[in-house]
Structures are given as C-alpha cells and as structure tokens.
Amino acid sequence: MRLSLCTITFRHHLISLDEIAAFARANGFDGIELWGVHARSLDHRPERNGEWLAALGLGVPMVSDYLPLDADPMELRRRMLALVRLARRWQARKIRTFAGSKASARTEAPERRLIAMRLRELATLAADHGLSLLAETHPNTLADCGASTLRLLEEVDHPAFGINFDTLHVWEGGDDPVTFHRLIRPHVRHYHFKNIRARADLTVFEPANVYAPAGRRDGMTRLFEGAVDYRPFLETLAGDGSVEASLEWFGADCLDVLRHDRQKLTEASAVLLRTAS
C-alpha cells in the first residue's frame, strides 16, 4: 500500500508545503494528497511541482476538489480544465470530486441524470489528459450508500470514472465496508482512512463543521481507536502494492496523530502479511 497524508489536514494551520513534505518524508509517507485550494494557492511558486516532490521521494496521487456539477456547462468545463492543469503540474493521476450535494434518496430522476451526464463528460475530459475522475463515497451525494454508488457507476459508465472509497463514510451510509468493497473493488482507485468515536459523533464531519476554524473536533479519533474496526478491512488490501490510500485527519495534534497512525498502519500491515503467508 502506498500511503499519503492530506493537506486538508492543515487547512487552519500556518505550515508550508515544504514543512509538510519534510514531515511526510521523515515519517514514511509515500505522498501528499493535495487539496484543490492549496494547489491553487501555490500558483505563485512554479518551482514547487511534481518534479520537486519526486526528488524528495514523494508524489501527489490525487488532487481533491469540488466540481460544481450543476453550474453552467462552460464554467464547469473551465473549472475541470483548471484542475487538469494542476494535476499535470503535480504529476497526479486522479482528480476527486463529489457526486452532487444532495442525498441520493432526495434526488429526483432528472437531477440524477444531469449529474451522471456531467460526470461522464468530465471523465471523458480527464481521460483525454491521461487522468481519472473519482467520486467520493460521502453523505449527501449520489455516493452516500452502496446501492446508489453502484447505480452511479452504471449511469456514468466511463472507464476513467472511479470511486474514492472513504471507509468511514461507507460505514456511515449503512453498508459493511468489507462486503461492499468486495462488490465495488474493480472501480476503486483510491481510499480515505479516518475514524470516529461513535456513530453519534458523525456530525463532526459535516462540511460546515469541518471547514469552520472553531468547529467541534470531539469524537474524531486515531485510526485504530474508533467505532470502525479497520483490521478486517485492511485484510482485504494486504499485499496489494497497487493500493493507494490517504490518512484523512481533521482534528487537533495533526503531526502527532498522523505520525502515530502511519506507524500503526505499518505495524498492522506487517502482521497481516505474516498471517497471510
């Protein structure tokens, strides 16, 4: 498994990409998942790019952003092309977005068709540049539960379209991550790992709270200390060197938690590999 940290972790911190890269390198991370906001903010530093990170032994597997699928088609295309440019600058192969901004159960058929059509068009554009477009399993989107996510893949029906499998959000949507992963694995191009103290705390991950500097962080936990048991899920990935994943941490003590969870993932993976052999 190739593991990255996410720059969104540092959305409220005064820390440079140079410092993040040094930390990632020193703590055994393979890459840095670049938040779209941060990628755009580095436009004034052209010397910071994929080649620079590669020289440090790091890569950018994915640029994560939020494409306005209900926007004017020309504006949507402009936004996508801007992300393509950023992905190519950082040598990323994947662009992540959300499949709309409304729960699947509340989305009417015409709106669903529009979202699928737009995602197909964007996936075609991504493919033209050698990239993939991923929709994240996430609440209040068309990928908020297993059934709707599988349906979305059928509706978009494009080889450059895939899934960013957020294990916690799959569990939040009512599906067993191991069982659902077995069904959808051919379409999964990336994974997000995070955890929560209890189901009652899931509201801490609502965007309005996550992006607020004074938002609540109680309930966010280290990866192996929460309500989702990651060990059975990691068993399904053991030994697969093609897997790319990111630790997604939104709470306090960023560096300590990332360092701790990276080490625990390394230890768990080693145990699983010995058990499998």
UniProtKB/TrEMBL annotation:
SUPFAM superfamilies linked to this entry: Xylose isomerase-like
Keywords tagged on the record: Isomerase
Domain of life: Bacteria
Annotated coiled-coil segments of the chain: none
Domain Xylose isomerase-like TIM barrel: 22-270
Pfam families per the UniProt record, alphabetical: AP_endonuc_2
GO molecular function: isomerase activity
This protein's record includes keyword Isomerase: yes
Keyword presence, Isomerase: yes
Name of the protein in question: Sugar phosphate isomerase/epimerase
